[in-house]
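[job 4471] stage=fold_predict status=RUNNING
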Amino acid sequence: MDQAKTNETQDPGEVDRIIAEELERLLDSPMFTRSPVLSRLLQFLVEHRLRGGRSSPKAYAIATEALGRSEDFDPAVDSYPRVMVGRLRSLLDRYYADTPWVHRLRVPQGSYEVVVQYRSAPPAARAGDEPADDGDVKTAAASAAAVRPAAPTVAPRPRDRGARFGRWLVALVLLALALFTLWALRGGSDRLFVGDPVPVPLLEVSAPVAGSLPESRALARALDGKLRDGLRRFDLIDLLSSKAPGSTVAGTSDYRLDTSLVRTVEGNTDVTLVLNRVADQRAIWSQQLRLTQDETPEFTAIEPLIAQLAGDYGVIVRDQVQRQPDNFSPGYPCLAQFNRMRQMRNVTNAKQVDTCLRATIKATPRDPVALTALSLVRFGDWQPQRMTPTGREAFAEARALAQRSYENSPNSSAGLFAMARANFYSGNCAGGNAMGDGAIALNPYDADMSGFLGLFKLTCGHGPEGEALLRRSLQLDSSYPGVPAVTLAFTLSQRGEQEEARAILDNMPSPSNMEPQYMMVRAIVQARQGQVAEARAQWQRLLAYTRQPADATPEQVVSRFIITPVVIQRASAALRESGVVPPKTAP
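[job 4471] inference complete, writing structure tokens
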């Protein structure tokens, strides 16, 4: 059995170097990457050792500094540190069981100290009938045994050749099985095995910290209720309650939202929100607001923060994608990549997104969020090919997926909005409006849903309602505005309000300001403001983007990225009337 050589028998500087290098290898390994809490625990124990800690860290320090427990943690009644260190020992053993090693890290039983265990060489491969040899482990007994005379060499028996052949045959069979399994897991849409989809992150909402006066406590309860009411309406997070601010339910939550509320002498209320990543106890987002007496206790000013936190491409989704940019696993990682593709307008990974969405639906056929997402992907496939058999096939599948989403979850905003979109694309304005209004009622904090429903309502002739929803979308989250913002700018320009339309366009970030809808509306607004040369240069860029000839009509160009005939007609008329393109010649 392998033994840990006493660290004091080695040069301390060399031991520290080995520990630091092993820590880096372990943290970079897939096994530890998938276990962020245990990674943080190992890092804490190693840093304690490298800082010169002469004894094991205490359970209290491990709990509060490495595992995110609150300061009132009592190690006498809570064995959480001991349990997690035990899991760390098991994970280390699993890692080194698959990795040849000369020295490894170990946390001995009954201790929280990291030590180094040595070997003189990696273990050699052995046949099943050969006895185990502990001669590769450096121990005091091994040093003493080194003076014994070597045993005489025994010539191999003839049966050894057959044993070696058998071992090669077994190895080839195992290799073939491994390659087949890899092919089955990766190949085609009919994969043999589909694992359980990864669940959405758990968000723990701490009770707001407030003063002891009755007014402060009442405002804290109102703020807590507003946050929970808004956050629970989104599909890409699940809420986990907490009894006390700063506390964490062990091993469950992925993020924690801490809030505080302070009433000033002038009667205002200062609200601070901090989002923490539980795995490494880092604050990844924070906002502070000063609210007047008129803005409390309704806390409507908090609504944009709710949308930015939990939205389809909000803070939490972006953090997950940033940490795992190439993860397309079924479930939450796939949905996060889908929203990344939509918001960044990058179709490079469209095939991977389509595949992982189908895998998610195969594992959970009634999931309205995955069904709605794949429906939108297929509507996107239909738009550029809508006059072809391939386009009609995409449209039929997109509508069928939307129908499944609604039938499986008729009381969810995802199911209702999927069917609303399908109705609008089919020309059924009445059905689209009814379904869309129901979806907004279930989640009035979703900026993306408000924006596209506003666009659909404008298309169907419901101008005031549509414009209100477009403004609501920008108010909730203006970081990725896209088509809703461009539509609002076009509406304002048509009404003669060029300054506000120009301000909306000027504030649109990349990549939204590189889309064809943006180029078209900006050209119209520039021309109406007297910048005709700049407007026509913008039109030339749009021609190049859509790969249309210089003499193409506005209808030909606009129909490349807009599907609704009435919108194509309005946009073409505006391009001619503003002077971006020449007026239509008489037949």
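[job 4471] summary: The chain has a mean pLDDT of 83.
[job 4471] exit 0
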